[in-house]
Amino acid sequence: MKRIILIFSCLLVAFALRAEGLKLPHFMGSDMVLQQNTNANIWGWADAGSRVKVSVGWSKTKYTATAGDDGFWKVAVSTPAASFTPYTVSISSGKDKISLENVLIGEVWLCSGQSNMEMPMAGWTFQPIENGAEEIRESNHYPFVRMIYLERSESTELKNDCNGTWRCAGSEFTPGFSATAYFFGKRLSRELNIPVGLIVTCWGGTMIECWMSRDALKSVGETDESIAASIAPREGGWAGNRATVLYNAMLYPLRHYTVNGFIWYQGCSNVGKVFEQDYGKYQAAMVTQWRQLFGRGDIPFYYVQIAPHPYAASGDSGLAPLLRERQRQAAYLVPNSAMICTMDLVYEFEKGIIHPRQKKPVGERLANLALENWYGFKGYGSASPELDKIIPEGATAKVVFRNCEYGIHGDKGWEFKGVDGFEVAGEDGTWHPATISDCQGNYLVVGSPEVADIKKVRYLWHDFSIARLWNSYRMPLVPFTTE
Fold first, then answer.
1. pLDDT digits over 95-147, tens only?
2. 33 Cβ contact list (under 8 Å, min separation 6)
3. N or C, where is the chain less crowded by C-beta within 10 Å?
4. Is residue 373 a contact partner of residue 420, using CB atoms and an 8 Å limit?
5. Whole-model pTM?
6. DSSP of 162-196, one letter per residue?
7. Nearest Cα to 307, choosing from 479, 430, 150, 49?
8. What is the dihedral of CA 316, 343, 147, 368, to 10 degrees?
């Protein structure tokens, strides 16, 4: 009797596996973009032990795989150079067949972060995208910029699938596209003259810990106990802002997709934790782990420094500058990563609005980093001016910059009258507003009648402070302090 039950149970298991049939991840479908000039993965599930065949429209090569005991199968298909030619990818297993149409070969980037990455081209209530309507109409000319927006999902366990549908840019779908990602992809596509695929996986209000694995968190000193406490649901809190849950559900499932780089727009939700953690080390650990997960080596990671915004009821918490500084430092902690500054991309009337409307320059600055540092273009001026050194000279200090070989410029005239943001301090550490008295090439001279012997200089060291200085490529001077 036991033997009969065992045989019957085995038959049930086999039937259950057979009943699944051929499946692909929900985010792999028609209109997608595959990475050019590589072995791009195509994968899914089928009946255990079944043979899966894959054929691609750009080659006569036939690819085969055998589904494992868990039904999983994967093939790596050789892709040609990018083109605007649409292809068909056909997958079959027994009587099951799947056909993916209008597949393009180009560059594929993964775009992640919180609400400023999530902010759509159509904008939000009272928070529009600057020139958004015009850009949406114009997107009809860019159907080869493709985007998949992954549905929000969370999990305390690793997942193998998540939902999303590939869409072509155009007035029908562009309103729902991530604005930052779209402008990034559009510029890449125009400059490289090839299709661009953008995988957008983001969730507004999330902390960086949500997007990190357990191992990554442990590498920066988190313990099993602290991770468990962070994962546990909080009464009155919202479920998405817990450690690892978005990594598990919205990043890990993508690990087989062949991408060529990452862009990241996050940090606002970690402002309040600047004294608890070194954000730069968290970001570096996250990048290192993501690269290991996707198995593509040190592919680029480009990210956005948080914009001016008051983080306290008083208007200035003093915490945002520290977070920005740690973001700046993060670029030096891992290879092939770089940051763009956005301190100039906020209007005065947007004070208190955490989603600035100027998203086109954000996306294009990220694209310029990629074009210059990854794709080998010259002269794009993708780097912002940064502090090199200060030379105290009693009541004045010479502030020397790098990345401004053609000089430093101001918004308010030749003599820099009215350009604010600099402060100086003496031995007592009390900060006083400073004015610019001279400018020669790559340096400025600053001073204050309140400080007779300058020891320290800082610039834009407040939650909300707008950049008024830039280099010849219109890249703003990055905030700094010598303290």
1. 999 999 999 999 999 999 999 999 999 999 999 999 999 999 999 999 999 99
2. 103, 104, 105, 106, 107, 108, 146, 166, 195, 196, 197
3. N
4. no
5. 0.94
6. ----EEE-STTTGGGSBHHHHHHHHHHHHHHTS-E
7. 479
8. -160
